[in-house]
Amino acid sequence: MSQDAWLQNYDATCRLAQEIAENIHERNRQQRTGGNPAKMNMTLRASLQKLKQQIIQLRETLLRAASSRRIMQSEADRRQNLVDDLVTREKQLSSIFRGDTAEPSRSSLMTGGGAQGPPANPWLIDEPEETRGLDFGEIKQQQQRVIEAQDAGLDALAVVITRQKQMGQEIGNELDEQNEIIDDLSHLVDKTDGKIRNESRRVKLVETKASSCGMLVVIVLLLIAIVVVAVWPTS
């Protein structure tokens, strides 16, 4: 399994810091013995600048990885602690190079003040218990297992979301069918209401005609009665 690119760059930065510490020790030795460390100083300035740039790159890469959630928050915090330790180490080396701080013993200069010999990685002093004693490859494997577990959880979540989406689509289709039925009923009600109004108008017309005919019959009967009375001989 290939090693994480960020961890590879971090490991290279650690080695550069150790190389700078060794060169500072050699530069100071030459100064004490009357040598001319001018070339060594030029090399150290370039190395310190490179160290600072690599630390900045590590921090920017870590921020991008954390913001895009390519790594777990606990791993991002652990790596941030490593970068902070590198920043402290770079400041210490720069101060010793300028002569602002007295040079410590060679062993502490190389290891950052370790007790009995340099550890496998001198920058992992505050490393979490679950990764303590592991090399970068083993840490990468452990992280990969965590990522795989997260992926499995995301796959299960995706299945649930897909099922819910299907249910939502089915509910939507059912609602569409119900809306079509309601529209048909509304159309039928409108047609029935129109027919009822038409029939009501016809009934009123018939009633009006019937009423008119009844009055006409009464008038005709009255006229006949008048005529009969008029022509009927009186005794």
Overview of this protein structure:
With 235 residues, the chain is mainly alpha-helical. The chain has a domain at 5-132. The protein is 79% helix and 0% strand. It has helices spanning 5-32, 38-67, 73-98, 106-111, 136-231. Helix 1 packs antiparallel against helix 2 (38-67).
Report a brief summary of the structure.
The protein has 235 residues and is mainly alpha-helical.
Describe how the helices and strands are arranged.
Blueprint: H1 5-32, H2 38-67, H3 73-98, H4 106-111, H5 136-231
Q: Quick one: biggest sheet?
A: none
Instruction: Point out poorly predicted stretches.
Output: 112-126
Instruction: Give the overall form.
Output: rod-shaped
Helical fraction? over 70%
Q: What's the mean pLDDT score?
A: 78
Number of helices: 5
The amount of beta strand, in percent, is under 5%
Task: Note the run of SSEs as H and E.
Answer: HHHHH
Count of DSSP strands: 0
Briefly note the structural class of the backbone.
mainly alpha
* Alpha carbon gyration radius: 50 Å
Distance between the termini: 144 Å
Features:
T_SNARE_dom; mainly alpha; transmembrane; rod-shaped; 235 residues; phosphoprotein; Syntaxin-8; single chain
